[in-house]
Amino acid sequence: MKNLFLLRHAKSSWDNTALTDFDRPLSKRGMSNAILLSKYIQKHCISFDLVLSSPSERTQSTLDLVLSYFDPIPITTLKEPIYHASASNLTQLIKQQDDEINNLLIIGHNPGLHVLAESLTNESIVKFPTCAFAKITNFNHWKDIDTGILNLESLITPKELKHD
Questions:
Q1: Could you tell me the pTM of the whole model?
Q2: How far apart are CA 13 and CA 131, in angstroms?
């Protein structure tokens, strides 16, 4: 069985208004939340065979913090199309993955990730906040992810991590 993990970047900083959206760094709260998520992932023995990430500053920084406890670090590829990708574009990217990969992490942005999680699982997700981490299951081939029978096994938010 395959596991698709979706991670929205952690909270970004708006302190420097001269920076472009692409170049915004994480805020202190974002860094703290990413570290909490990293501990959650480690505690629950979650692993990734491949990580596909938006190349924006905030997604890369989130990824660095989340993967800080991994040894070895999973194969990570920056994919320009993930930056503000639509759910359908993300679906096409996921469908292209090799079936030798069992655990795939996509780290990116809303609204694409939120809409993707809802469309793949037919779940109504009220909010997919920054540093939200979803696990989607119930499929055996990446090409089959849009069959409409996938399960939203978990959706972890920073508020829940503070009580874990």
A1: 0.96
A2: 14
